[in-house]
Specification:
This protein is an alpha+beta fold and 204 residues long. It is 22% helix and 38% strand. It is built from four helices and nine strands. A four-stranded antiparallel β-sheet has the order 1-2-3-4. Helix 1 runs antiparallel to helix 2. The longest helix has 18 residues. It is globular, with a radius of gyration of 23 Å. The chain starts with 20 loop residues before the first helix and ends with a helix.
Length: 204
């Protein structure tokens, strides 16, 4: 009697590990299709444990049309997982709402930089340790590079020769602005904690 091997449909697929409760709560609090966002993040993690996370929801206006966006950053022991979802009208029907969700996994060794810009109002009254009430978190891993060029100059103020151009190449693949006044103190603390955890991970 011939032995029949099991087919792919017969094999049980191991369920993905559930997301940490605090990450799930952050996604639900953002309010942008939380079941969809949680599923795509869970699939991208592929069973890896989340070490730290940042969930950032943003609303923009495009010709009087409200557009919602959500970005989820998750740090694991080996990767930076990024999920971004937004909505738009289906071009085929012109009115049906469609959400798109994209994930990307970047090895920690490929993350080139973590930049934090602190915005401090009334710096003359700055309290040590407060770090301001707004930050911009910029991450780079080489997917997008920007070149800033300026005319080169020399030390002679009377020189009118053409010295060509000089500039810098910077990477800013993703940039998120988090404000305590707009999103709450907890959101700002979480963003700072995530930035610190990621900085420590790529600095090893």
């Amino acid at each position: 009697m011939a032995h029949m091997g099991s087919t792919s449909s017969d094999r049980a697929v191991a369920p993905a590990a559930p997301l940490p409760a605090d990450l799930t709560r952050s996604i639900e609090r953002a309010g942008y299709y939380p079941a969809l966002v949680a599923d795509v993040v869970q699939a991208a993690l592929a069973g890896e444990q989340a070490v730290s996370h940042l969930v950032h929801q943003e609303t923009t206006f495009d010709h009087d049309v409200v557009r919602r966006h959500i970005t989820v950053l998750v740090l694991t022991s080996s990767r930076l997982v990024i999920a971004h979802a937004d909505d738009h009208a289906d071009e085929r029907t012109g009115h049906e709402e469609v959400a798109t969700a994209t994930t990307e996994s970047i090895p920690l060794g490929a993350v080139r930089g973590v930049m934090l810009t602190h915005v401090v109002a009334n710096p003359q009254d700055y309290r040590p340790g407060s770090l301001g009430r707004e930050i911009t978190l910029t991450l780079g891993w080489g997917a997008v590079s920007r070149i800033d060029l300026l005319p080169a100059t020399c030390a002679d103020p009377n020189c009118d020769a053409d010295h060509g151009f000089e500039g810098t190449v910077s990477s800013d693949d993703i940039s998120l602005r988090i404000s305590a006044d707009a999103e709450g103190e907890a959101a700002l603390r979480q963003a700072l904690a995530f930035a610190h955890a990621l900085s420590a991970s790529i600095g090893r």
